[in-house]
Amino acid sequence: xxxxxxSDSGIVTGNTYDKYGSSNPVVRRLMSGFERSLxxxxxxxxxxxxxxxxxxxxxxxxxxxxxLGDGHRLVGIDLEEGSIQAGWAERQAPNLEYRVxxxxxxxxxxxxxxxxxxxxxxxxxxxxxxxxxxMARCAGSHLLVSVPREPLWRMLNMARxxxxxxxxxxxxxxNHWSKRSFVELLSxxxxxxxxxxPFPWTMLLVRL
Length: 208
Hints:
Layout: E1 4-6, E2 12-15, H1 25-45, E3 49-53, H2 59-68, E4 73-78, H3 82-90, E5 96-100, E6 113-119, H4 128-138, E7 139-148, H5 152-159, H6 179-187, E8 191-196, E9 201-207
Parallel strand pairs: 3-4, 3-6, 4-5, 6-7
Antiparallel strand pairs: 1-2, 7-9, 8-9
């Protein structure tokens, strides 16, 4: 399947486009707003421990581990797939641990972490309600989540000539939320501490 990454169990884990490392000026501008919003929401939550669900190659969770520093515990989880584990090997930190696992039934205690994050992940999982329930169970204080904003995301894909046969849907995207519908979904989990809209995403910090 060209252009996507697939786990050893056959699940689409993402795509081969490196948005974090892109040199394209338009992409860099979009990612700058995205990453700035993430950092500001992370600072607001100020967690001492963090579980990053669907951490991919570890780009964000490794950056957070360096940002938060010693005395903080971070765990990143994702599926087994060659490029993911290769990324983990390159991004190590004393306060960071990686584990191979699915998000459906997390083997962590209730409230084991102060914050659980899922950044560009919930659109990929077959049962986002259940995944959010597990994340909320493991997090004692906050959820930090982001998803592509629809139908804007698919419209932008089609505008650049991508995924026409799928009406602009990125491979592996099973779920689609407008800003309003995603806010409604997360408001059932707790108090919306902050809602951000870095173009073209929706990003929420939820106080449990």
